[in-house]
Write a structure and sequence with these properties.
The chain is mainly α and 492 residues long. The protein folds into 2 domains: 235 residues, MetI-like (MetI-like fold, Orthogonal Bundle); 231 residues, MetI-like fold (Orthogonal Bundle), CATH 1.10.3720.10. It contains 20 helices and no strands. Helix 4 packs across helix 6, helix 5 packs antiparallel against helix 6 and helix 17 packs across helix 18.
Length: 492
C-alpha cells in the first residue's frame, strides 16, 4: 500500500514537471556550444598548473574561509542546539539557514566591502542555523538511560557533559566533518562575488578563455574534496583552526560609515525614509510583489520542480555505478570517482560554466542542479544498495535492477529526494545571480541598484518559500513513512 502511494506521488511530481516544461525557457542561444564544450574538455584533460601562479594563494584562502566559517558556525550552532526546543530559537534558525550563503555575502558586502569578515559571516551564519537543527536532533536521539545513573541533584550541564555528549560525540564529529566539505564548496563559490577564493580565479580564467587554467583550478578543487579525510586529521585540526584566521588576508579596510548607513538607512523601507510613513508601505509592497516577487517565485518554482524530477531520474541511473550488485572492484572505483566529481561540483559553479557554453536560459541551471544533487543521491542510494542481500537465484542485469534492487530502495530514494527538495529550491533562487529570472535575479538587481530594502523583502520571501517547501516535504515523508536515518542530515 505504501509502495503504491509512493509511486502515485512520484507520477504526480513527474506530471507537474512536464507541465512546468511548457512554461520554461530551455533554449540554447550560443552559436557553437559544442565547440566551446570541446575546448573546455581539452582544458580539463590538459591542465596548465604552471600558468596558474596564484593557485597556492587561491587554495589557501579557500581553505581558510571554509575552516573559519564552519568553526564559527559549529560553535554558534552548538550553543543554539542546547536551547533549540524554544520556539523562537527554532524559528530564527529556520530563517537564517533558509537564506543562501551568497545572499548573506551580498548583504555583508554593503556593510564590510571586500573584507574577510564578509566571507566568514556569509558561511558562519547560515551554517549556525543548520548545525543548531542537526546537533539538536543528534543530542535528542541519544539513549536517555545513562542519565538515570547520575545523582538526582545533577543539573542539565552535568547530564549533557557526562551522558548525552559522550554518546553523541562520534555523530557530531562525523556531521561536522561533512559540513566542512560543504564549507569548501561554499568558500569556492564566494569567489564569484569578489572573495579571493578559487571561484574568483576560475571566473577570471573562464572569461579570458584560459581553459587549461580552468582545468587546473577544477582538478585542484576536486582533489581537495576527494582527499579531505586524508589531510583533515583530528591531531592536525587545532593547527588548521589556529592558522586559518591569519590566512584569510587583509582585504579592503572596513568603512564603518557604510555599516552605520546600512543599519540606519538602507534597511528601512523607502516610503518610511521619504516621510510617507506606514500609509506608503502598501503601494510600495504591492508594486514589489507584482513586478518582481511573483515572477521570481513562479520561475523559482518552475525551475525547482523540473530540476527535482530530473535529479531523481539521474540518481536512479547513477547509483548502480557504486553498487556491488552491478559493478566489480575496478568499475566500482571508477564509478565512485565519477560520483565524487558530480557531487563535489557546486551547482553555482557548474551553472556558471554551462551558461558560458549554452547562453542565458533555465537550461544551465536545471542541468547543474540535477547533476550535483543526482550525484549526491546516487552515491547515498548506491551505498544503501550494498547493504541489501539478494536471493541466490536473483536475476542479473536490467531485471535485477528493475525487479530486485530498485523496488527495495525506492522508499529511501524518495525520502532522500524530498530531503533535497528544499535544498534545490534554495540553490534555484541563488542561481538568479547568473541571470536566470528566479528570485535571486531580482535580489541581485535590487542590491546593484542599492535598494537594500527591496532586497531584504525578497530575501525574506525566498526564506519563507524554502521553509514552506521544507514543511511540505516533511509532511509527505511522514505521510508515506519515508525515512533515511543514516544520511538524512547530509544536505548542502
Amino acid at each position: 500500500m505504501r509502495q503504491s502511494a509512493s509511486i502515485r506521488l512520484s507520477l504526480a511530481f513527474v506530471l507537474v514537471a512536464f507541465v512546468c516544461l511548457l512554461f520554461a525557457d530551455l533554449q540554447i542561444s550560443t552559436s557553437n556550444p559544442w565547440q566551446e564544450l570541446g575546448r573546455l574538455a581539452l582544458g580539463v584533460v590538459t591542465p596548465d598548473f604552471a600558468a596558474v601562479d596564484y593557485l597556492g594563494k587561491a587554495v589557501i584562502r579557500t581553505l581558510a574561509f571554509a575552516f573559519v566559517g564552519v568553526a564559527l558556525g559549529a560553535g554558534g550552532g552548538f550553543m543554539l542546539a542546547l536551547c533549540f526546543r524554544h520556539r523562537v530559537i527554532r524559528a530564527g534558525c529556520a530563517i537564517i539557514r533558509a537564506v543562501h550563503e551568497l545572499f548573506w555575502a551580498l548583504l555583508f558586502l554593503q556593510c564590510f566591502g571586500l573584507h574577510p569578515l564578509t566571507g566568514v559571516l556569509a558561511i558562519a551564519i547560515p551554517y549556525a542555523g543548520i548545525f543548531a537543527k542537526v546537533y539538536a536532533e543528534i543530542l535528542d536521539e541519544t539513549d536517555p538511560e545513562p542519565a538515570h545513573a547520575l545523582p538526582a541533584s545533577s543539573g542539565r550541564l552535568s547530564t549533557l557533559l557526562y551522558t548525552r555528549l559522550p554518546l553523541a560525540w562520534s555523530h557530531l564529529v562525523s556531521y561536522t566533518a561533512y559540513r566542512l566539505e560543504c564549507g569548501l564548496r561554499s568558500s569556492a563559490v564566494l569567489g564569484f562575488i569578489g572573495m579571493p577564493t578559487l571561484g574568483y580565479y576560475l571566473e577570471s580564467s573562464f572569461a579570458q578563455g584560459h581553459y587549461s587554467s580552468v582545468g587546473a583550478l577544477l582538478l585542484i578543487f576536486y582533489v581537495l574534496i576527494a582527499t579531505l579525510k586524508l589531510w583533515v586529521r583530528p591531531r592536525l585540526l587545532p593547527l588548521y583552526l589556529m592558522a586559518a584566521p591569519f590566512l584569510l588576508g587583509s582585504g579592503l579596510p572596513i568603512a564603518w560609515s557604510n555599516v552605520s548607513r546600512f543599519l540606519t538607512q538602507d534597511v528601512i523601507p523607502a516610503p518610511i525614509r521619504s516621510g510617507e510613513g506606514i500609509a506608503g508601505l502598501g503601494p510600495w509592497l504591492g508594486d514589489l510583489l507584482t513586478d518582481q516577487a511573483l515572477p521570481g517565485i513562479l520561475n523559482t518554482l518552475l525551475l525547482t520542480q523540473i530540476a527535482l524530477v530530473l535529479t531523481g531520474a539521474l540518481a536512479l541511473l547513477l547509483f548502480p555505478l557504486v553498487s556491488s550488485h552491478f559493478t566489480r572492484r575496478l568499475s566500482g572505483t571508477a564509478g565512485h570517482m565519477v560520483l565524487v566529481i558530480l557531487r563535489s561540483t557546486p551547482e553555482y559553479l557548474l551553472a556558471f560554466i554551462l551558461l558560458q557554453l549554452w547562453g542565458p536560459s533555465m537550461l544551465p541551471a536545471v542541468v547543474a542542479l540535477a547533476i550535483h544533487n543526482g550525484g549526491i543521491i546516487g552515491h547515498l542510494i548506491g551505498q544503501r544498495s550494498n547493504t541489501l542481500r539478494l536471493r541466490p537465484d536473483a536475476p542479473h542485469g536490467v531485471e535485477r535492477y528493475a525487479y530486485e534492487v530498485v523496488p527495495r530502495l525506492y522508499g529511501p530514494f524518495l525520502a532522500l529526494l524530498f530531503y533535497r527538495w528544499e535544498i534545490i529550491m534554495r540553490e534555484t533562487a541563488i542561481l538568479g545571480i547568473l541571470g536566470v529570472a528566479t528570485l535571486g535575479f531580482y535580489i541581485d538587481s535590487a542590491i546593484q541598484e542599492i535598494r537594500i530594502d527591496r532586497a531584504l523583502v525578497l530575501i525574506l520571501i525566498t526564506a519563507l518559500l524554502n521553509i514552506g517547501i521544507d514543511s511540505l516535504a516533511r509532511h509527505l515523508r511522514a505521510r508515506l513513512r519515508l525515512r533515511y536515518r543514516a544520511n538524512s542530515r547530509q544536505g548542502c
